[in-house]
Amino acid sequence: MAETLHIGRKISKLRELRGMKQETLATELGISQQAISKIEQSAEVEEDALAKIAHVLGITPEAIKAFTEEAVFNIISNTFHNTSSDSSTLIASSMNYQPTFNTIEKIVDLYERLLQSEREKIELLKNSK
């Protein structure tokens, strides 16, 4: 359960999913690579710093807070479909899978839309009381 609340680990995972090195994130934020390392080891991150990091990663602070690896795996598994029942074809087709779009951007976009949908549901429930 602690991992789901560890903001630093979430930042690290999202940075890695973006294919970004600590040095690149540090340069974009105007801080040292060591500072990024320290942030990624921290369970909590100040809101101001989180907003700046989220901006560089191209996502919202809320997406960082709500991020789970399980959600990413669910998106990937629900997105990949194979019509063949032959498992060797499945393995071969997945090994040769080369999307023509940035999969990380698509995952983040889907995640952001899911998060927005949940916010709208919560707002509707609040207003119906």
TrEMBL record:
Tagged with keyword Nucleotide-binding: no
Domain HTH cro/C1-type: 11-64
Tree of life domain: Bacteria
Pfam families, sorted: HTH_3
Keywords for this protein: DNA-binding
InterPro entries given in the database record: Cro/C1-type_HTH, Lambda_DNA-bd_dom_sf
Protein name (database record): Helix-turn-helix transcriptional regulator
Protein species of origin: Mucilaginibacter rigui
